[in-house]
Amino acid sequence: MTLKLNEKYIRPFVDEKELASIQSEISAAHKVLLDGSGEGNDFLGWVDLPKNYDKEEFARIKVAAEKIKKSCDVFVVIGIGGSYLGSRAVIEFLNSPLYNTLKKDTPDVYFAGCNISPASLKELLQICEGRDVCINVISKSGTTTEPAIAFRVFRALLEKKYGVDGARERIFVTTDKARGTLKQFSDEAGYETFVVPDNVGGRFSVLTAVGLLPIAVSGVDIDALMKGAADASDAYKATSSIEESDCMKYVAYRNLMYRQGKATEVLVSYESYATMLNEWWKQLYGESEGKDKKGLFPASVIFSTDLHSLGQFIQDGKRNLFETVISVKSREVDFPIPYDEANVDGLNFLAGVELDEVNKTAMKGTILAHIDGGTPNMLLELEDRSAYSMGYLLYFFEFACGVSGYVLGVNPFNQPGVEAYKKNMFALLGKPGYEAQKAELEARLK
Ligand code: PA5
């Protein structure tokens, strides 16, 4: 089985009756998601996407990826939130967080426009010096400040280096199919464009061109990724039964935890290659459920690293959290622990033992310790670290998120809360039309 939810370490924390009683709510939410009768139903394009996608564009993505691979050393992906987290999660999970330092026949992939840090931008410009560069600017709205600034900078760099005509061959744009200034600008400039479908929100867009182009450039098999997601969609759409569907089991347990007063779900992995997957998941659940003064706070850790920091809190701090642990079952590397004649560290009892075995044993020991400390654990067992399994996992979380949001009683597909900071920032920066707010905000900052 590609993905299995092991409930052994959470079941003792849940009353049998509670589990049975949430079934009807889950069935109702599952139906609302599939028949499109709930709030936010104009953003359900992702539900059928793994099968019902634009095949012509998919083929074009592959061609563009090959062209990019051949023509640059550095590929800069410009986007923020849902316009970068998915591709980065997949690239780093399937390759390595050290992807850019590995020997490989694909360009180094860097991300820009995902913050407003001058230091990061300057550093990336230095990295690009003397190297061939292509960029992919990704923005559904086409007006988001962070990527717009980075696009200005990189467009200028490319035009200076290659001329306007040369730059045109190196700029790829992923945006709305018809609306928005970025689409209009790209058409006028002659850039190749890809589409963020109208009915797919940013955080659900990893399996559109938003995610697929950068992922393909990194060398990942996007056919296998889509196949994994398609098989997951068949499995999870077929039944809303908690018994039969691990996806619905996940929805059940996290909502029961929430009702018990657990405020935080911690996504746990024992591999640093999952760091950006954690970030993608945090956006998916944070933006989908954190509204109307409701929702679990999505947090994440990488163990064993964080066992030496947040591990203390999880073991022993305020009992208001639970963990969802992702474990990759297959062993992919042979890394036996070396024998050391001097045995100064006393570790010769581990000589010859695979590092993977030690890592998985650390996981088992930690889960038992944490449940003894009162932190329930769900264990998500992923078959292997392949593009197929990754696609399956992405869809698992997306589908669970849609159903879970409806069980919680929110619209999982809007994000009204992300606008507040933008208004204040624009007002303080003196954007025309924001004069009244500017004066009021400045007075508050004095
Ligand atoms: O999930 C979302 O909708 C957001 O995180 C957006 O992806 C993010 O704000 C970027 O928006 P845009 O693609 O319009 O630049």
Helix-strand layout with pairing:
Blueprint: E1 3-6, H1 16-35, H2 45-48, H3 55-71, E2 74-78, H4 85-94, E3 108-112, H5 118-128, E4 133-139, H6 145-168, E5 171-175, H7 181-189, E6 192-195, H8 209-217, H9 222-238, H10 246-259, E7 264-269, H11 275-289, E8 297-302, H12 311-316, E9 321-328, H13 355-372, E10 377-382, H14 387-408, H15 419-429, H16 435-445
The biggest sheet amounts to: 5 strands, mixed
Global geometry: globular
Parts with pLDDT < 50 across at least 5 consecutive residues: none
Q: How many DSSP helices? A: 16
Percentage of residues in strands: 5-15%
Distance between the termini: 59 Å
Helix content: 40-55%
- Structural class by helix and strand composition: alpha/beta
Radius of gyration using CA atoms only: 23 Å
Please provide the ordered H/E string of secondary-structure elements: EHHHEHEHEHEHEHHHEHEHEHEHHH
Query: Count the strands?
Result: 10
Mean pLDDT figure: 96
Side by side, the strands of the main sheet go 1-10-9-7-8
| Distinct compounds present | 5-phosphoarabinonic acid
Can you tell me about this structure?
The protein is an alpha/beta fold. The chain has 16 helices and 10 strands. Helix 4 links the parallel strand 2 and strand 3 (108-112). It is globular. The structure holds 5-phosphoarabinonic acid. 5-phosphoarabinonic acid is lined by residues 80-83, 139-141, 144, 147, 201-203, 287, 415.
